Amino acid sequence: MSERQGPGHGLSEHELSEIRMLIEERTGICFDESRERFFSTRVREHLRAKGLPHGTDLLRNMRKSNVEYEALLERLLTQETSFFRYPGVYEAFEKRVLPELHVKKFWKNPRTLRIWSAGCSTGEEPYSIAITIADSLSFADSWNVEILATDVGRQALKQAERGVYAGRSIGSVSEKQLANHFSAVEGGQQLKPRLRKMVSFAQMNLASPVYLGRMDAIFCMNVLIYFSEERRRTVVQRFYETLEPGGYLFLGHSESISKMPVKFQAIVLNDCILYRKPTAGELLKPELVTEGRA
Description:
The protein is of the alpha/beta class. It has 2 domains: 65 residues, Chemotaxis Receptor Methyltransferase Cher, domain 1, CATH 1.10.155; 204 residues, Vaccinia Virus protein VP39 (Rossmann fold), CATH 3.40.50.150. Helix content is 40%, strand content 19%. The chain is built from 10 helices and 11 strands. β4 and β5 form a beta hairpin. The longest helix has 19 residues.
């Protein structure tokens, strides 16, 4: 291995490789060649921010302290996100998934809707889900809505729990939604208590299975790209098992599970592909279904 180092940051290729291996070993998150440059830049930034002279110091701290380990992981994983980032996804959720669940569960008592936002970062995704549900007339107050939002990043979750957003993050929130669901506070706009009550945040590593009970829908947008192929299969299999029959999985645009041995039914709506877990009676025909507008 070459000992190529940037000016002033004692970080060798070997140390980068050790840090990469430590992260993959603990979380299953894999920074492959395609993210090589991004990875080394972020690790160097972290080294500078912590005032550490060498990669070996960072490695020692990460092995010794979970907090130090998580701090680097957070710097590597937290991306800028925003409300309703993929409009097609929320449109499909509102016009296809919610009406279907409404019909399916209308006579249940209590009427419970359970949704998992896996890899929720700073909270824009689970709150976008909550707003979509609150704006859907058929899901008024007679439903018990539980949105579980999980992420590996402790700091991101703290920010999410505060529910205060500003600038580009809320750029796609309509005036009406802003008036109905937010209150102006210092630092931006805060989600009203009714919406915040729908969402529970928890720190979780997707590579370590935890039983969550059955879900009606799972959102896992642009998270699987960080896992190795083998780990991806395991996580998708777990999503399949966690979903209720007839439940839906939403993935990011660049993610596909077409080559995986799970029996999801792929449904194409406009520019969005949703993966539906067939009911027992449908398992005989899980072919790709193409449909018109949502």
